[in-house]
Amino acid sequence: MSTTTRLLHCPPEDVFDVLADGWSYATWVVGAARIRDVDRDWPSVGARIHHSVGAWPLLLSDTTSVEAVDEPHMLQLRARAWPTGEARIVIRCEPQGDGTLVTIEEWAASGPAAKVPQPVLDPALHARNVEALKRLAYLAESRARRHDDSGGHGGVPRLRRPGSAADPRDEA
């Protein structure tokens, strides 16, 4: 399993707001070329992002689905990119001081990629996830900088997901 961490200078809620915006997936996930659709209940368990990976004209269209979620602390995904296989990704957001320590754990779960020895696969996954966390940091930290003086959520409305309680800071 490849494990990559980065300290982001924003609260876990700002990080999770980016994770919960399925349409932003191709902005921070290295290799995702475009988003074709996002299930309305993303990031609920079973919800999917319909994406394409690769570079034109060599694009593979597949899906990433949510296997588990503990907002705003953890999101577990199963990313498909057949014929190469499927990966399992766990993203953890742990408060640390004024920021959030974000950890991405990723491993090949099935298909041809799962046959590659982990010591061979890990350096490539780690390098990709270093860049992914850099991009995620740009998005989440930018959101955090937009916080207004009234203690609201950056003047940016929080995403309202089915079954999620309203953030009391939104009412300010």
From TrEMBL:
Record-linked SUPFAM superfamilies: Bet v1-like
Which Pfam families does the UniProt record give?
Polyketide_cyc2
Q: Which residues form a coiled coil?
A: none
User: Superkingdom, according to UniProt?
Assistant: Bacteria
According to the record, the residues making up region (Disordered) are 143-172
Q: Per its record, how is this protein called by name?
A: Polyketide cyclase / dehydrase and lipid transport
